[in-house]
Amino acid sequence: MLKNIENPVWRQQLPAQILSYLPLTLFFQVGLMYAGLVLFLFAWCLSGDWQNKWTRIRSSALLLPVFALSLVSVLISLIHPHPVGEFASAFSHYQTYWFVFPMLSVGSGVWQQKAIRNFFLGALIAASLFYLNSLGALPDIKLFKSYVLYEGNKSILLGLLLAIAAAWMLHEWRLRKNFTLWRALSFGYVLIALVLCTKSRTASLLFVLLCGLLVFRNFSFRWWQIGAVAGLLFLTAFSISRVAQLPAPVTCLAKEMHDVYKMSGVQILLNRGICTVHQVRDFGQTKQVSEDGMRLELYMNTWQMILQSPWTGHGVGNWLPMYQQKAQGQISEKMTTPHNDYLLYWFELGLAGLVALLTIWGTQLRIARQMSAKVQSEHAMLLAMLTLGMMFAACFNAILRDGVFAFAMLILLAIPLASIDHHAVRRSSN
After folding, report:
1. What is d(CA 292, CA 272) in angstroms, rounded to the nearest whole number?
2. Contact 371, 417 (CB under 8 A)
3. 258 CB contacts (<8 Å, ≥6 apart)?
4. How many CB atoms neighbour CB 128 within 10 A?
5. Whole-prediction pTM value?
6. What does the H/E/C string look like for the chain?
């Protein structure tokens, strides 16, 4: 082992080796992901080659947008009071994106395809654990707790990861152009677990959205494409109007559906879809929400507070104390985030913070578009789907505010981005 540590070639290769296994850790207890990140950073510091690392980081198209977000968070912190016990952790969340740059500095290599395979392997393991739990065969221990009990953010993350993995599998299948029974079975195995076992409405909708991106990746406004989009929009509107007329389910809580009423995965998925439509309808009419639909109340209250200071926001970490004061006596009073990163960034950092966030994600989409015409085109769709997934999930969850989501997304983001020739990307955009 000492000989290996003293070997400079081995030290340079070790960060990439660790990075290739990090996607596998995302499907287990969050401590395993954090331990993997610490191990990667330790190996990265020992690997040397600082000149090449800095060159890759400096040339990244994401550097300026991420720096702009950090600068905004610093400036806003100087003009607003710091809430006791909240400021340090809240401020650190706005710096999370910096963790992607050590990963990007590793550069391209075989580790990328290995990381994708490990991500797919993790999805297959996760699907198996969901199936085992549905059969009552999974032990109730800490390692598998997220598969046995609905744990909020971690359970939501598992659904999002399965949705992204299934979409990536479809892309790989199309890219390789070789139908194999193994690919078909793996895709179906993960997809069924996503739909029937995760109980995540966001994840199921995300998969549909990513499939749409695959289908319309070369949208050129041809008559059949426009007709297909119009038809889908009409069918969606018609379906929502019909669902709004259906009787209300006996409960809208997934845990009660499963534990009390012993509903199947299909029934839970359908009932939660009906509940979502009914919650939006009822909130629009009476402004009253149930425990399952409290996000609507969160969004309305947060938006009302944003309007009080839309330009400079209310300060880093101030959402929680201010919201608890505003929502006294309401069902959402105990919530710790607004479950929407766009509202959170606008509330705490003002309009500049929201623009900075959108600029980061817009840059990722621009890179994906430019990659599609270059040798890195096989990773372009992976980047586009992941970015779209982050943007969509941020509408309903704290995708960057919570490290459980943020670090998982950054680990996946490093896979397609690490091989970018950013100088070439910049030249092509000029």
Report:
1. 9
2. no
3. 199, 268
4. 15
5. 0.90
6. CHHHHHCHHHHHHHHHHHHHHHHHHCCCCHHHHHHHHHHHHHHHHHCCCHHHHHHHHHCCCCHHHHHHHHHHHHHHHHHCCCCCCCHHHHHHHCCHHHHHHHHHCCCCCHHHHHHHHHHHHHHHHHHHHHHHHHCCCCCCCHHHHHHHCCCCHHHHHHHHHHHHHHHHHHHHHHHHCCCCHHHHHHHHHHHHHHHHHCCCHHHHHHHHHHHHHHHCCCCCCCHHHHHHHHHHHHHHHHHHHHHHCCCCCCCCCHHHHHHCCCCCHHHHHHHHHHHHHHHHHHHHHHCCCCCCCHHHHHHHHHHHHHCCCCCCCCCCCCHHHHHHHHCCCCCCCCCCCCCCHHHHHHHHHHHHHHHHHHHHHHHHHHHHHHHCCCCCHHHHHHHHHHHHHHHHHCCCCCCCCCHHHHHHHHHHHHHHHCCCCHHHHHHHHC
Taking the CB of residue 358, how many other CB atoms lie within 10 A of it? Answer: 14
Which residue segment(s) compose the domain that 114 sits in? 2-429
Do the beta carbons of residue 342 and residue 393 sit within 8 Å?
no
Distance CA 61, CA 417 (A): 10
What pLDDT, in 10s, does the model give residues 161-177? Answer: 999 999 999 998 877 76
Neighbouring residues of 128: CB distance < 8 A, sequence distance ≥ 6: none
- Identify residue 415 by its one-letter amino acid code: I
In the predicted model, is pLDDT for residue 354 greater than 70?
Answer: yes
Q: Which of 186, 184, 183, 206 is nearest to 195 (CA)?
A: 206
Using the predicted structure, report yes or no on whether residue 216 has a pLDDT greater than 70: yes
Q: Which two tokens stand for residue 407?
A: 């670090």
Q: Report the amino acid identity of residue 346.
A: W
Domain count, the chain: 1
Query: How far apart, in Å, are the Cα atoms of 39 and each of 2, 25, 32, 42, 50?
Result: 17, 12, 11, 5, 18
Please state, in angstroms and rounded to a whole number, the distance separating the CA atoms of residues 174 and 11: 36
Q: What is the pLDDT of residues 75-106, one digit of tens each?
A: 999 999 999 888 999 999 999 999 999 999 99
pLDDT in tens, 248-294: 787 877 777 777 777 776 677 778 788 877 777 777 776 776 766 78
